[in-house]
Amino acid sequence: MFKERRSVNFFDKNREINDKTLQEIVNLAVLAPSAFNLQPWRIIVVSTEVSKKMLYDLANKQEKIIEASVTLIIIGNKKGYAETNPVWEEMLQSVGNNHEMVDGAKQAAGFLYGSSEERKLKFAESNAGLLAMSIMIAAKELGIDTHPMSGIDFEGIHKGFNLQESETVVMAICMGYYDKSRPLYPRRPRRLFKDITTVV
Question: What is the CB-side half-sphere exposure of residue 40 using CA atoms within 13 A?
């Protein structure tokens, strides 16, 4: 799937992703790892004409938002480590009601991810980024094309889509079927192991 996935600029406006397929993509993608399995993320599915137009205006009027079947706004929760996260209760059940173990995990997560604004943001963005890549691979596995976007008005999207104060917009992902009547640029070379690694 990694070699087949491309960032598609042109989507077939006449082909829609059905609800079952979209749900299957997301349900596969949430197998992505996250810190303490806290899953500090959520997704806004932009599908209606009104919502697409709003996002289009907040994303430098990129046509792929209008053409794609849907666009996913990937949101990270900067306070996903907090007591209110229902995953803590699931963790308690999975470790046989070992409160000491779960309390220790909560304290560690609070320190690692909640002790500064920088750490809160890193926590939200790094975990939601794992989900985003997982979504793109899951989509390709089911024959759906995608295009991740960060050239967007993050603050405008936060306000326009009524995000909570603790949430941050990580990226948007256009999703649909490639319009094969419009050629893609050839894949550009990637920097390989020898170019990007330092062994210490």
Answer: 30
CB 11 within 8 A of CB 174: yes
153, with CB counted inside 10 A (0-12, 13-18, 19+), is middle
pTM: 0.95
Distance (Å, whole) CA 38 – CA 166? 15
Which residue shows structure tokens 């406006």?
Answer: 13
List the helix and strand counts (H, then E) for the chain: 8, 4
CA atoms within 13 A of residue 49's CA, in its CB half-sphere: 1
Strand segments, DSSP code E, in the chain are 41-46, 70-77, 145-149, 167-176
- Looking at the DSSP assignment, which residues form a beta bridge with residue 45? 72
CATH of domain 19-196: 3.40.109.10
Q: What is the pLDDT of residues 64-92, one digit of tens each?
A: 999 999 999 999 999 999 999 999 999 99
- pLDDT by residue (tens digit) across 122-155? 999 999 999 999 999 999 999 999 999 999 999 9
Q: How far apart are CA 131 and CA 2, in angstroms?
A: 15
Distance CA 197, CA 61 (A): 37
